[in-house]
Amino acid sequence: MQQAQKKGLSKSALYAIIAVALILVVVAVYLLAPKGAGPAGPAAVAKPFHKQILYVIVNDEGTRINMYKTGVFDIAAVTPARWPDVNNTRVGNFTLHLVRRPDKPQLTIQYIGLNPMKEPLNIPEVRQALAYATPYDVILKQVFGGLYVRLYTIIPKGMSGYTEFGINKYEYDMAKAQQIISQLKAKGFDPGKYVITIIYNEGNTARQQIATLLQQSWSQLGFKVTVESYSWPKYLDLVDHFQYQVMLLGWIPDYFDPDDYLMPFVWGGAEFKDIEVHSNVAPGDVGKYLANVNMTVETEKFIVVAGEKGTGATYKGPTNKPIITVGYVVDWDTTKSNWAEPVNMVTLGTGGLKDVALSALCKAAQRIIDPTVREAVMQAAVIYFNKQATMLILGQQITGENYGSWVHGMYYPLATFARYDLVWEDPNAPVVDTGVLNIKNSPETMVIGDIGWPDTFDPAKSYESFGWEIFWHIYGKLVTMWKEDTEPIPELSVAWAFSKDMTDLYFVMRGNVKAYDPWNNKTYPITAVDALFSIWRAVRLNLPGGPQWMIDSYIDVNASSVLTESELDSIAKSQGLVTVYKGKSAEVHSLKELLDFFGYSGPTAGVVKFKLRFPYVPILQIFVTGVGSIIPMQYALGDKYQAALADSNNGRNPAAWAKYVGVGDTDATFKLLSTKPVSTGPYYVADYKEDSYILLKYNPYYWNATLWQELYGFKP
Predict the structure, then answer these.
(1) In a designed cystine with 55, which of 416, 426, 556, 694 is the match (CB 3.0 to 4.6 A)?
(2) Which residue ranges does the record assign to the Solute-binding protein family domain (predicted)?
(3) CA-CA distances (angstroms) from residue 715 to 38, 577, 665, 684, 706?
(4) CA dist 669 to 463, 522, 662, Å?
């Protein structure tokens, strides 16, 4: 979980001011499946194909905006406060388009963290008073320039588990805040004895403004409120170890599932030896599953009751809705260890609530397969967490459209990035010298004015949005998402299925896929061995601050393996497999049935089986992310490839690869891929200069290049 924090925090630091996703768009309504190779019909308008993508790093905003206004960039990072100045700027016969879309919420949130382990924030009424004394609307308007809208719960709109049922909607109400403090004073509480310190990372002007507004408002309650700023590394250290009273941060989810909000923020640090969920329990039968009742939460459609697993509980709560019971057996040794010196998002959620029943709801939601029951349990966690007021949610980001009007077909995905080979420009788009490598911004070149720099080019290490955007273009994954859809579809795999107990996940690999090594002008065939090696390697390297937790938390990579198609067929025939695709589910009893269900009849390249540590509903979403990028094992291992392949029995024993891949950043495969990435996607890294530019060119061996022919009449 620590890595999740690093990514979330890094992103928020990078985009707290630049609060607009720099993502572009798909042109045509085509599925990401191999297209027919026949010639495309005549197009009404010629659509130039982006043969290359150029990222130009310009950290000074004034310079970056001036370059945008002169047509050097097709899109550029612009702070929300500057949008009115830049919008509608004429560039030749076109204009710059920067428009807010409140009807299209994104998943980024901004929040205030209150530490309940520090006085006086350990008093719930104090937290509630601060919640009512927070000028939400002023912050959203003045600081975020209208690119955020109010949000009251930890799970944002657009995700399962979002609810407004039973939620305290904190709005700015100083009179109510002062009334709460007055009631505490009547009990002997003196706010004048307490100093409340708000911390933020220095250089972040948005958070500096928020801290100042909070200081002015909260001081009216009688507290002495101070503000402190720290360097980013020091700030992270303070946040990581809960050494703060109040902190300011934002969050972009790692993958599209509410678990990526519940576990980092809501989870109370408790671990369990067993969790058991029962639905549609009669009130008189609660005692058949629970030894006691420690939490009762009414949700939209259910009553969720949590307590220790056993028998004998007496239930006296509401009975107007069906009851779901969550019974648990606490692992007290691990739980007490987590609580002793808690680490934010690692051993305790950011909310700082050392709460067993709340933890049980979060852990149970990871394992529940029934979507209706799962949503109810998540809502119960959200409702309970909201009432504790340890995180004051400022707002949820909305879509900000930002591009030159010569760029067509814009779209904004919730959890991924747009593919720039699917974006096209007007044939008469401005042609302007970029000042980089003698490249002009022409209709065949997508140019982005950006800030920052990727951590590395190795998907086993990079855990930030810039790196993941690059990976979205240069690497294929087992599954992907199309346009603004949020359900995975096949990419380098062609079908998937689970064992009936949901602990084995099988991917059938697409045949005839090649990886391209531009540094040596070589290609490598991609098979199930490469898929398993790519995922296994991320866990094996265990690089600091990397995304490997997303794999290791849910998959035992050493117990995973490569199978042949005939072996999967035998498993399907003897045991049956279950699969879900495009909202439909099925039980299949042969490989042919599985492939038919996915509508695939082409060549295949083996099967990879992942052994799940427990049934985890959103596991497919993780394979969409940067850490799911597929690399060729032969490129990574070089002359050790054949020996590693033999020692692992062609991927049946991946643990044998530990002899060839080390731990940490001294590993040879990391040194190679962090600086010289290869390609299994539509583009490859052709050139780069750190903190200056990154040049991508189209991959001539891209497996789905026929798509370009259909869209643009372009054939590599």
Answers:
(1) 694
(2) 48-266, 487-704
(3) 11, 39, 39, 17, 7
(4) 18, 17, 9
